Amino acid sequence: MTVAHNQRKASHLARVRKLKVARVAGLLTMLLGYCLLAVYPDTPLTWALLRVVLGFICLFIGFGLAIVPWIDRILGGDKE
User: Fold this and answer.
1) Exposure class string for 32-49: b at 16+ Cβ within 10 A, else e
2) 50: closest CA among 40, 36, 30, 60?
3) Is 0.90 surpassed by the pTM of this model?
4) Domain boundary assignment for the chain
């Protein structure tokens, strides 16, 4: 194996590791969003609205981190 091959392999492994970390972070962010959306009926309106807004923000960010790359790979966007 050459030095260039080892560097490419290390670069590829770092990229794969980065994608896995992003997916896990996205799934955890989506889970946080769902937890924030669970509001008790007797919660004051201002806190309920704040939790709903933060919950949807977390869902959108998590979807972007975890689900969009997966859909892109399925549809053939990642040709590398």
Assistant:
1) bbeebeeeeeeeeeeeee
2) 36
3) no
4) 3-74
